[in-house]
Write a structure and sequence with these properties.
This protein is mainly alpha-helical. It has 13 helices and no strands. Helix 2 packs antiparallel against helix 3 and helix 12 runs antiparallel to helix 13. It is globular.
Length: about 260
């Protein structure tokens, strides 16, 4: 459908329509596991929006590209896109996109080990998301704060914050986000030594992962399964899962999960 819309707008010469169709198609391809083509389409959309002076569209495209390049492991590009999104948005005051960029910057800081920066950005994102009832961004902020607490060896706080993220995503029925945070909690349980809780969470999640059909989530679940197996003493099973996951990562050229 989006490809047809893109072709139609190209034929008619509607630049705004081309930009919107390219962006929608880019999001669809990203969800389907084709990030390279998705990035190309979002860059095309951004180029058009810059030429026609669509400031709101520029901010959205910068955030889209920030999220994509972050997941691909291109952290310099991600930082540039999120910063540009906030810079342009300062002229507009669009709260949703500003919070989205803040959450992106918080995730990036967390990945780079900058825990204080991650906590500050996520805390501000949570404040704004709660004030303006931006549920998805609120869940993202809770998740980052939970992961920061986990990294700082505050596992109880981390579990509480991740549980809040799960509650928010549950209200939104955001299945991929629920799966992602559940896997965060599995890793927390394993490191804390609560192997039984980790196993229960994984077993409960497995049918949902099958329905979602998301390659990256399934690979991460396989890694978590290996961690749980190792904690249970099944070392051979853990090693076999790790090797299978490495092979799959190389096949789809995915960055570290």
């Amino acid at each position: 459908r989006f490809e047809q819309a893109l072709t139609l707008n190209e034929t008619l010469g509607h630049r705004q329509g081309v930009a919107e169709a390219a962006a929608y198609l880019g999001r669809a391809l990203s969800a389907q596991g084709d990030p390279q083509r998705a990035v190309s389409l979002h860059r095309r959309a951004l180029s058009i929006k810059e030429r026609i002076g669509d400031l709101e569209g520029i901010v959205i495209s910068q955030n889209d590209l920030g999220s994509l390049t972050l997941h691909q492991g291109d952290y310099r590009s991600a930082a540039r896109h999120f910063a540009r999104a906030r810079e342009v948005n300062a002229q507009l005051g669009a709260v949703r996109e500003d919070v989205r960029a803040l959450n992106g910057q918080a995730s990036l800081a967390l990945i780079c080990g900058q825990l204080e920066e991650a906590g500050v950005a996520a805390g501000e994102a949570l404040r704004l998301a709660t004030l303006h009832e931006l549920g998805r961004e609120q869940g993202r902020a809770y998740r980052t704060l939970g992961l920061v607490a986990h990294e700082e060896a505050q596992s109880d706080d981390g579990e509480l914050l991740l549980t809040r993220a799960l509650t928010v995503f549950g209200r939104l029925e955001a299945a991929p986000a629920i799966a992602m945070v559940t896997l965060d909690m599995v890793e927390l349980f394993v490191e804390r030594g609560d192997v039984t809780l980790a196993r229960m969470a994984l077993d409960k999640l497995r049918p949902q992962l099958q329905r979602l059909g998301r390659a990256r989530l399934s690979l991460r679940a396989e890694l978590c399964e290996g961690q749980v197996s190792a904690a249970e003493g099944a070392r051979d099973d853990a090693l076999a899962r790790l090797e299978r996951t490495r092979a799959s990562l190389e096949e789809i050229n995915a960055p570290e999960l």
